[in-house]
């Protein structure tokens, strides 16, 4: 089968063996894939969790049909339309654990379905499970113009947030954040953004920050969070290391929570997917939670799709179809 593989000379489409499902695995005939920032790093040879390096079939998000079931797989049958996440997505066929997938709603095509699994699982876990957002609270999404950021704002609104603040350093994308739930859009590269957040919250700061940037905004986040507020760190777009004001952290008694899928067990991931199904799936089926598709590429043009992502001018998801 054809797959997009990182090799000695970089990523390229090549022939690999078609996988066979074992245990609780499901074999998926892939129709569409969503691109993610972690994929971009892996096209340069970076490791993401335990995956990456030479010989790796790239990709982590897809939509397609069940082609075959492992002996212990439950909950789906051959022919079902599904979407999910896992390694080796950029291929004609991929494997997924039966607990790491969703049924694709009948009112969604495969391109649309492929945009959702990573954003839904990541941001429901960050905003609701770890962020513990309550109706009437305020939330700031750092890096809000990314696909997962756009989803985070929508989930926050769905769960009854009183004030949703979104950040983007790009003026064009920042201007569109209100389409996806932002009441206030800020530029995190502007030193005045903390004052804007404090003004919007009566000087108190937000109840919750979901931070995809970290690094350079870490201390500003502390200043923009209310006493006994929460910060959930889901990314490091601003760098993996930076100065941190421990005194301000302690003085404001902020709960600082780190989350990632890279170190989670399959049992933990299954629980996250189950929580999405139980809590917000009706909103997904009603198209209240959805992501814009910036551009669709054919699988043969996947290199151009990654060049488009690296240019960093898109809003929403980049999709590749097979």
From TrEMBL:
SMART domains: PKS_ER. It comes from the Bacteria. InterPro entries: ADH-like_C, ADH-like_N, ER, GroES-like_sf, NAD(P)-bd_dom_sf, Zinc-ADH_QOR/CCCR. The keyword NADP applies. It holds the Pfam family ADH_N. The keyword Nucleotide-binding does not apply. Residues 7-320 form the Enoyl reductase (ER) domain. Keywords: NADP. This is Zinc-binding dehydrogenase. It comes from Bradyrhizobium jicamae. The lineage of its organism: Bacteria, Pseudomonadati, Pseudomonadota, Alphaproteobacteria, Hyphomicrobiales.
């Amino acid at each position: 089968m054809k797959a997009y593989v990182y090799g000695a000379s970089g990523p390229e489409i090549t022939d690999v063996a078609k996988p066979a499902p074992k245990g609780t695995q499901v074999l998926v005939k892939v129709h569409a894939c969503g691109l993610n920032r972690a994929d971009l790093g892996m096209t340069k040879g970076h490791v993401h969790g335990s995956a990456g390096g030479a010989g790796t079939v790239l990709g982590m998000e897809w939509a397609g049909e069940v082609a075959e079931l492992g002996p212990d797989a439950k909950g789906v049958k051959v022919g079902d339309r599904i979407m999910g996440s896992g390694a080796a997505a950029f291929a004609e066929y991929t494997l997924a654990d039966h607990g790491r997938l969703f049924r694709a709603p009948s009112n969604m095509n495969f391109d649309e379905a492929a945009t959702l699994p990573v954003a839904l699982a990541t941001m429901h876990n960050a905003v609701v499970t770890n962020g513990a957002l309550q109706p009437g609270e305020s939330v700031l999404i750092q890096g809000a113009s990314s696909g997962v950021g756009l989803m985070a704002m929508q989930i926050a609104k769905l769960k009854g947030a009183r004030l949703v603040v979104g950040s983007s350093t790009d003026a064009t994308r920042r201007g569109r954040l209100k389409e996806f739930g932002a009441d206030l859009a800020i530029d995190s590269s502007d030193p005045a953004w903390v004052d804007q957040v404090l003004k919007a919250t009566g000087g108190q700061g937000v109840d919750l920050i979901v931070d995809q940037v970290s690094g350079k905004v870490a201390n500003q986040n502390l200043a923009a969070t209310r006493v006994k507020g929460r910060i959930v760190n889901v990314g490091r777009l601003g760098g993996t290391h930076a100065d941190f004001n421990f005194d301000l952290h302690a003085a404001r008694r902020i709960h600082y929570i780190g989350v990632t899928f890279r170190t989670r067990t399959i049992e933990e991931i299954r629980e996250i997917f189950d929580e999405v199904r139980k809590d917000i799936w009706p909103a997904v089926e009603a198209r209240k939670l959805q992501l814009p598709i910036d551009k669709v590429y054919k699988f043969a043009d996947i290199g151009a799709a990654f060049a488009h992502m690296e240019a960093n001018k898109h809003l929403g998801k980049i999709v590749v179809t097979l």
